[in-house]
Fold:
Amino acid sequence: MKTEFEAANSGTTLTISTDSSAALETKIEQGAPADVFLSADTINPQKLIARGLATGPMVVFAGNKLTIVVPKDNPAGVKKPADLARAGVDVIAAGDEVPITKYATQLIHNLAGLPGYPAGFEAAYAANVASREENVGAIVGKIALGQGDAGIVYVTDAAAASDVRTVDVPASANVIATYGGVLVKASKHEAEARAFLAWLAGPSGQAVLARFGFLPAPS
Structure:
């Protein structure tokens, strides 16, 4: 995205800082310099708008789905989503403020309502959570190193990792993550920031996102 945007907008350079959406939102609140805030949810951008730190409206620019990642050798034998609640399975999750946690909680709730899932599935899954990480990348990293048996992540993060396997979740239970972006009010490059957000939500930006497995921006 950086490469293609800069090629189409001579003289503009993108400097990218990544972390969990919640962590980035907090950094901006604390005065970290930024022009655009891109989040894996719509809650964190709206927080900045509500606190007078971002200029609306928010731009919804992508969607994503969830999947389950397991180590390549899958020592716990996690073969289906129901196995996430099996005794002895260590689940790597994220902190409460990280967007993936909200989506994963909804996914587990949806799965619990499907035929064949035992009573107490949600509680058993919660009991299996062995650690809570700062972001999705850390979940994938721990699973890749065999420091956990399974984790719920975005499809795009799983696709970008060569050292994990995936366990699909039923389409009827999956959750669509919605990504939003805003112009940071303290931006010193407002025109360029607005241009980037427009490019991101337009055909060129959407084409780049699609190549990496993102869904079109939900309407």
